[in-house]
Amino acid sequence: MTSSPGSTRTPVVAMASGTGSLLAALLAFAERPSSSFTVAALVVDRDCPAIGIAEAAGVPVVRCEVGDYADREAWDRALRERVAEYAPEWIVAAGFMKILGPAFLGAYAARVLNSHPALLPAFPGAHGVADALAYGVKVTGCTVHLVDGGVDTGPILAQGVVEVRTGDTVESLHERIKTTERELLPTVVEAVVTRGVVTDGRKAYIP
Ligand code: GAR
Questions:
Q1: Ligand 1 centroid to residue 166 C-alpha, Å
Q2: In this structure, are residues 65 and 45 in contact, taking their beta carbons and an 8 Å threshold?
Q3: Given phi > 0 = left and psi -120 to 50 = alpha, else beta, which region is 24?
Q4: Which of 59, 68, 88, 132 is buried most deeply by CB count within 10 Å?
Q5: φ, ψ of residue 147 in degrees (nearest 5)
Q6: What domains can you pick out in the chain, each with its CATH number?
Q7: What does each of the 207 residues of the chain score in pLDDT, given as a tens digit?
Q8: Strands of 17-102, DSSP E
Q9: Which among 23, 85, 34, 96 is positioned nearest to 57, based on CA atoms?
Q10: CB 117 near ligand 1, within 6 Å
Q11: Nearest by Cα to 47 from 61, 36, 32, 33
């Protein structure tokens, strides 16, 4: 478990669609005695290994698949209702491969974080690592940003730089980027939970 009875740690809901290594990093950070947050639940939009990681840590899993709803709006509303049961102060998309819609984002204005595997605003979207490699950049990295209505367009909170090596494949480069993400994302979550965020909608900083 990531919380103890009587814990006053801030509840955070994580969202994932894949192997869950960022989720594991969040859970490991939340286990530290000094951590200010707890992972109250994991949301998944599909069957994925992240589920097993959450279950092994005793974290409840909310499964909310688009195909189970009439349309994206209905899914978005259902997601909002199911997440609300955990009363999170922050939502952390940690490898979540769906675009969140207005009904969900409206309930958590400027309180949804995403980790993206490129240096935004370069290479947004689902193929950021492959796109950066194909373009021939010499450095890439990862970005933690607030989620707005666009695709990876929200205000940036933190970035980590990763060098592209000759001979890199999408897999080798992505693995080094994820190593950086696993360091960066939990520290940003800890920072926003304890200090909040100031944003004008384009720029953001953690005071
Ligand atoms: C991470 O690289 C994350 O930035 C990316 O998925 C990976 C998840 O890794 N997210 C996106 O691309 C979102 N558009 P994991 O499954 O090992 O945690």
A1: 23
A2: yes
A3: alpha
A4: 132
A5: -90, 125
A6: 10-195 (3.40.50.170)
A7: 344 444 689 999 999 999 999 999 999 999 999 999 999 999 999 999 999 999 999 999 999 999 999 999 999 999 999 999 999 999 999 999 999 999 999 999 999 999 999 999 999 999 999 999 999 999 999 999 999 999 999 999 999 999 999 999 999 999 999 999 999 999 999 999 999 999 999 999 999
A8: 37-44, 61-63, 90-93
A9: 23
A10: yes
A11: 61
* Cis peptide upstream of residue 124 (ω within 30 degrees of 0): no
Cβ(95) – ligand 1 distance below 6 Å: yes
Cα separation of 175 and 144, whole Å? Answer: 17
Alpha-carbon distances of 175 from 70, 114, 171, rounded to whole Å: 36, 18, 6
Q: Which tokens in the block code for residue 135?
A: 């373009």
Length of the chain: 207
pTM: 0.96
